[in-house]
Write a structure and sequence with these properties.
This protein is mostly helical and 93 residues long. The protein contains three helices and two strands. Keywords: Hydrolase.
Length: 93
């Protein structure tokens, strides 16, 4: 909408923000995770449990947000990596 209104700078800013989710994906555990302000993971790999309520998530856990990227499906599939791995994640969900 900002693009259509001629506000191209704001449109680019919002597009870039919408793609920041990739920095929250942890390939080592296969889930999106919360980070601390210093960039480290909120919960270390050894203590990460995707079914645990909280742990940096609000009103949910890592499973709830595991596929919550409706605006960038192909890039989400690439994180898992690939469509078949994403399909397996959806089946597990």
């Amino acid at each position: 909408m900002t693009q259509e209104l001629g506000r191209t700078h704001e449109a680019q800013y919002l597009l870039n923000r919408s793609l920041n989710y990739v920095h929250l994906f942890s390939p080592s555990v296969g889930f999106f995770r919360a980070r601390k302000s210093d960039g480290s993971w909120f919960v270390p790999d050894a203590n990460f449990k995707p079914n645990t309520w909280g742990c940096g998530f609000t009103e949910g856990n890592a499973w709830h947000d595991s596929t919550l990227v409706p605006h960038d499906g192909q890039a989400l599939a690439n994180l898992y990596p690939g469509k078949s791995a994403l399909a397996n994640k959806l089946d597990a969900l």
